[in-house]
C-alpha cells in the first residue's frame, strides 16, 4: 500500500523526530538524498551545469546543501536566490563548496534545475519572483528536479492555483505528500523518489492511500473448489434503453470479465436483444413494467448506464434502490438521484461513480472547482450523501466516511473515451456481488480498469470493448505482482 500525508501531518512528525536529533540532521539527510538523485539523473556530475532555484525557507535550504554536495563533486552550480531572505547556513556551506550566486539566465544554460522555491511551507499561488522562476524552469531545456513538491502545487491537496513547476522528478522528504498522488498536482510531479529521513515511526494514519497490484490481488475473491455460480455472486445490471443500447452491452461485458458467477441484465426490449446477442453467458430479462420485482435474486446491482432519465427510468431506479443489496449508481441514474435525493434513502450500501460533471449536479459545486479540488469534493460528497464515492477523472479517487481516500495510480489518458465508464461500472458491480464492500470494490475496480486501459492502449487509442477484454489480463498481472 502506498501512503501519503498532508503538510500538517508531515510537519508534526518532523517536529517529533527533530526533538531527538542534533539540529540540522534532517536537512542533511534530505540534502544527501536529493544530491544522490540529481547525480543519477545527470549521469556525469563533473563538469555538468546545475541551477538551483532557492526560496526563502527550508526548501531552499535543502537545495543549497545538495548544491554544495554537487559542487564538491565538480558540478558548476549556480543559485538563483528568490526570497527576501535565504537559509543562512545552507548558503554558507554552498559558497564554501564553490557554488555561485547568479541571475535567472542560469536556468537557461543548466543541464539540471533544482526547484527549491517552496515545499510544504507554501501558502496560496506562487508570488513573484517565484512564479517567474517556475515558468523559466518549465521553458528551459534542462531536466527539472523538484525538492519535496513541485513549487506551485499544494502539498496537501494537489491543487495548482497559478504558475507551477513541471518536474520530471520529485524528491520527496520523509514520506510522500498527498498532492503528489492527486491531479492536477500529480501530473506536475513526474517520477516521485522518496528520501528516508527516519520519519516512519512518527507518521500518523495516512491522509490518502493507493493500492498496489499486490494489494488488489489480496483483496480480490478467488473461487474456491466448492464455488458455484450463485456462491460466486450474481450481479444485476439495470442498464440501457430503447434509445441507448451500447452502455448495457459494455457494462455486462465488464461484469462478465471480472469474475461474477452470473450476470443478470434487465432492461427494455432493444438493450436486452443487444445484450443477448453479444453475451450468451448473460441471463436477460426484458422488463414489461419498470420494476425488478420477480427477476430473481442478485447480490448487487449496477444501475444507470444508458438507462435514460425519464419517468420509466425513474421507476426502475426506485425499484432497484428499494432492494436490500448494494447498488452502484452510475451515469443516467446519477442524474435521477440528483433530481430526487430521496432515492438514496436506504440502509444497504450505495456506491456512486460520477465524473466531475455528474458530481457537480449531485452536490451543486462547479465542475471546474471539482476538477481543481478532487479530494475535498469527493470527501464532501461521501459525507453529505452518506455513500461511497468513486470520482472518475485524471486521477480516480474513492472516498468513504472515516477512511483514507484511495487514489488510483494505474490510469492512462487513453481511457478518456466513450463507454469506458460503463465497463468500470460492470467491473465494480461484479466485485460488489462477490462480497467486496463498496470501498474495496471501487478501488480494486479502478485499479484493474486503469491497468486494462494501459494493456489495451499500449500507446495507441483504445475503445471501451478493448478495455473490458483486457480485464482478465489485468487480473493475471495483479496476481503475478501478489
Ligand atoms: N522541517 C524539517 O525538519 C525538514 C524540512 N525539510 C524541507 O523544508 C521544507 C519546508 O520548509 P519551510 O517550512 O521553511 O517552508 P518552505 O516550503 O521552504 O516555504 C517557506 C518559504 O516560502 C515562502 N513562501 C510561502 N508561500 C509562498 C508563495 N505562495 N509564493 C512565494 N513564496 C512563498 C515563505 O516566504 P514568506 O511567506 O516567509 O515571505 C518562506 O520563505 C520542506 O518542504 C522540505 O523541503 C527537509 O529539509 C526535511 C527536514
Ligand atoms: K519545491
Automatic annotation (TrEMBL):
It comes from the Bacteria. (6S)-NADPHX binds at residues 58-62, 119-125, 130, 148, 247, 306, 355, 422. Binds 1 potassium ion per subunit. One of its GO terms (molecular function) is ADP-dependent NAD(P)H-hydrate dehydratase activity. SUPFAM superfamilies: Ribokinase-like, YjeF N-terminal domain-like. Homotetramer. Bifunctional enzyme that catalyzes the epimerization of the S- and R-forms of NAD(P)HX and the dehydration of the S-form of NAD(P)HX at the expense of ADP, which is converted to AMP. This allows the repair of both epimers of NAD(P)HX, a damaged form of NAD(P)H that is a result of enzymatic or heat-dependent hydration. This is Bifunctional NAD(P)H-hydrate repair enzyme. It comes from Nonomuraea muscovyensis. The gene is nnrD.
